[in-house]
Design goal:
The chain has about 375 residues and is an alpha+beta fold. It folds into four domains: about 130 residues, Beta Polymerase, domain 2 (2-Layer Sandwich); about 80 residues, Orthogonal Bundle (cca-adding enzyme, domain 2); about 110 residues, cca-adding enzyme, domain 2, CATH 1.10.3090; about 45 residues, no CATH class. The chain is built from 20 helices and nine strands. Helix 6 runs parallel beside helix 8, helix 16 runs antiparallel to helix 17 and helix 19 packs across helix 20. The longest helix has 17 residues. The chain is elongated and about 90 Å long. About 30% of the residues are buried.
Length: about 375
Amino acid sequence: SFPELFEKKNYELRIAGGAVRDLLSGMTPQDIDFATTATPTEMKEMFTSAGVRLINNKGEKHGTITARLHEQNFEITTLRIDVVTDGRHAEVEFTTDWEKDAERRDLTVNSMFLGLDGMLYDFFNGYEDLKNKKIRFVGKASERIQEDYLRILRYFRFYGRIAEKPGDHEPSTLQAIKENAKGLAGISGERIWVELKKILIGNHVNHLVRLMYELDIAQYIGLPLDGNLEEFDRATKNIQNLCPKPMTVLTSLFKVKDDVTNLDLRLKISKEEKNLGLFLVKHRQELTKAVGPEPLRPYQDFIMDSREANTSSKICELLKYQGEEHLLRELQEWTVPSFPVSGHDLRKMGVSSGKEIGTALQQLREEWKKSGYNMDKEELLSCLKKL
């Protein structure tokens, strides 16, 4: 196994960062990253002579080597110190000092190492913070943030993952975030969107987005200056346990479709995300459930009249937004019926001109819709005789 390779050469190897946090919280980590005292060159020599496949993915100048073993990729990074940082990326220098490496990490809960023998190396009280569900920057908040302004959003994301209740922040941390908010203007939209999406589907989303407005962050990450916070309150309550898409949550802040366009200009969201935002802004008010025995009908009719493929999934997001849990479940179980009559059937009945066929199909489709899509081919064709 590859730990033995390191041991033989007297290089130290430990599990690092997020995986340690997850293991200590009793969660299965998504991927396990390792840190080592070996330099990239030493690792390459060691792996190559042991016949281990290396995957080239440009991490090397930051000190990361990716080894492929038993159908799995392992990322192993040399301990390092950030020498120059410009708020976006760092130049690094390698070290064998574990504490120095922990010191440049963002949050205390992400700064621990775990020896393969189960020994925990925790220089900044990360384990204590994790147990108390506290999110804190390593060292001085403002220094950590200025190394990479995206850390402001990482603070929010981990707050949403770990903190027990909203509003449990150190005032000095919020102060540092507010003073450095402008730095987010220089961070690429793609990086911001990755973090923001995770915040939107995490806990305390209402509290965290309101905080983005209070701390003056919103304007730098593509959110409207006058976000509709009342609608946002309503929607976040509605959506609570319905697993919405991030865009569904975010759209409740928007008043007009320009808000979606501006978000897209700043964050380069996907076409699908943009279309969902525009769809919700357009239909959230008028497309609502019918009064009476068939509350789902307006939504079904909308899907049936639509000429687009993924209308059903947009309607599902709309129902989540509106908090219509029962209708959502019904719609998810509904299969879109297909219209039972074709032009071929009409020709067999002696309707010959294309134009007449078109008109007849249109009329039958209307009858079929009125019947709640229940009439079958026979009923529809006998209906045609009456027409």
